[in-house]
Design brief:
Elements lengths: L3 E3 L10 H10 L4 E4 L5 H12 L5 E5 L23 H20 L4 E4 L2 E2 L6 H11 L4 H39 L2 E5 L6 E2 L2 H10 L5 E6 H9 L6 H8 L3 E6 L1 E3 L3 E4 L20 E4 L7 H20 L1
Parallel strand pairs: 1-2, 1-12, 2-3, 3-4, 4-6, 6-8, 8-9, 9-12
Antiparallel strand pairs: 5-7, 10-11
Helix pairs in contact: 1-2, 3-5, 4-5
């Protein structure tokens, strides 16, 4: 059972792609997900390692490498579900660039944050209310219901914009033999929701569109009442899932912890151990090496018996 590690963990500490990759491989990971913090200079080192046959790249997280001139790497510099056509066009352009880079380094998948709906109260307000009042409190439930009503009224235009982007991007992805994986996000205004993802997968059934399940994000969504059953949704979307991000959560929303440091019931998700998908650790940048090793060992103890049985 192979595990990969996001280079966002150590990209800020290494000027060269070679050093970045060597540290990750030295920890026992099979390869890397190239994160959106990767610089053009680091990308050159990654290319050299791949060409030499000493590095496996499983996935690339858009936008990667970080675009020249951008203030920093970020997955939502531009959004392909934006209603603004100029922003959406820039997102399509940069995602095409990421797809080409992914194909160059042999990656199977590009992970994408598609978009967000501008609603008030937003998820930050909901999270504050959850911290202050609890997810079962009257204030939180009232704000959540208001957010859901407003999101429902505005979602269609963002989904239409997303489809216009995918109409351009998916033929390019198919030509490069790379899948475009839309990731679940820890906010209710994010596009798409789990239900919307199923609709998109049906619409683009004969295409390289796929789903990327972020386990920590899914747990946050469940903790805050945005989905009813995290495990059930993960299993329902499993046939369309090309990869997962692995991190733990301290309830209700403190995520990107190593497995075992939070309350995620990883044993309930052991079906990911034998599935044909990419398993990517995505800890917070700067997580100590000792904690990362402990998290990897913790998950192997829980999931490896599934493979052996």
């Amino acid at each position: 059972m192979d595990f990969f590690l996001s280079t966002n963990w150590n990209a800020s500490r290494h000027p060269s792609g070679e050093a970045l990759a060597d540290e990750i491989l030295g920890l026992g990971f099979a390869g890397v997900e190239l994160g959106y913090q990767l610089s053009e200079l680091q990308a050159e080192g990654i290319r050299r390692r791949v060409a030499a046959g000493t590095l496996r790249v499983g996935s690339v997280h858009a936008y990667c490498p970080c675009p020249i001139g951008a203030p920093g790497g970020h997955p939502e510099l531009y959004l392909i579900a934006a209603r603004d056509d100029d922003e959406r066009a820039m997102g399509v352009l940069l995602l095409q660039r990421t797809l080409a880079f992914a194909a160059e380094v042999g990656a199977r998948a590009v992970v994408v944050h598609a978009g967000r709906i501008d609603v008030s109260p937003d998820s930050n307000e909901l999270i504050t209310a959850a911290d202050d009042d609890g997810v079962d409190g009257r204030v939180y439930r009232k704000l959540l219901a208001r957010n859901q009503r407003r999101r429902a009224r505005r979602s269609r235009k963002h989904l239409d914009a997303l489809c216009r982007s995918l109409d351009v991007l998916l033929p390019r992805a198919a030509a490069l033999n790379v899948s475009i994986c839309l990731e679940n996000l820890p906010s209710w205004e994010a596009v798409p929701t789990e239900e919307e993802m199923l609709d998109l997968l049906q619409r683009y059934a004969a295409s390289p569109l796929a789903y990327w399940h972020d386990m920590g994000h899914g747990q946050v969504r469940a903790n805050l009442g945005w989905i009813d059953d995290h495990r059930a949704w993960a299993q329902r979307l499993l046939p369309h899932t090309h990869g997962i991000h692995i991190h733990d959560v301290h309830p209700p929303h403190h995520d990107h912890l190593v497995p075992g440091a939070g309350k995620m019931p990883f044993e309930d998700f052991a079906f990911y151990a034998s599935a044909d998908l990419l398993r990517v650790f995505e800890p917070a940048p700067g997580t100590p090496i000792s904690e990362l090793r402990d998290g990897l060992a913790h998950l192997r103890r829980l999931w490896e018996p599934v493979i052996a049985s």
